[in-house]
Amino acid sequence: xxxTLDALARECRTLLLADASPAGRAQVAALLGRAxxxxxxxxxxxxxxxxxxxILYEDRDLGFCILGHEYHDAKExxxxxxxxxxxxxxxxxxxxxxxxxxxxxxxxxxxxxxVRRAHSYALRPGDAHLYNEGAVHAPTRSGPTRLxxxxxxxxxxxxxxxYEVVAx
Length: 168
Fold this sequence. Notes:
This protein is an alpha+beta fold. It is 21% helix and 37% strand. The protein contains three helices and ten strands; from the N terminus they run H-H-H-E-E-E-E-E-E-E-E-E-E. It has helices at 5-18, 22-36, 39-45; strands at 54-58, 65-71, 75-76, 87-93, 96-105, 113-123, 128-131, 136-141, 145-151, 163-165. The protein has a five-stranded antiparallel sheet, covered by helices on one side. Helix 1 packs antiparallel against helix 2 (22-36). The mean pLDDT is 95. InterPro entries: RmlC-like_jellyroll, RmlC_Cupin_sf. It comes from Ramlibacter henchirensis. This is Cysteine dioxygenase.
């Protein structure tokens, strides 16, 4: 049976109500991965195109959001966190190279923090990866990509840390 956005939102809500810890979020990531392996679900979410960021669902009680992202060209993001929130990146189409970082010095008083590269890996269609609070990462896309992302809260309303990369 094909996954729908309503069913995904309902199941995310059920999982997070039962366990909002990182373990419960990992279950949400696994659920998103299953949804992204459903070709009809992906086709339906991106029918007619989508901007780079579009909120598809926002839970008024728990605050989590399901978003669609569509990038037409290569794009590189700098190292960032999600402030006091978490996020799950789910690859629908294309490939995203993700780099994780270790924080050497946290950001303070509007100044960028410092991070060191830890490792890089590819997110491919059907992959979903959880970034808990404080996890610093940077995406690189070499061509067109589509993602479904779940945020613990709407990140448009959240101050997020900025970082610069140091050697070592």
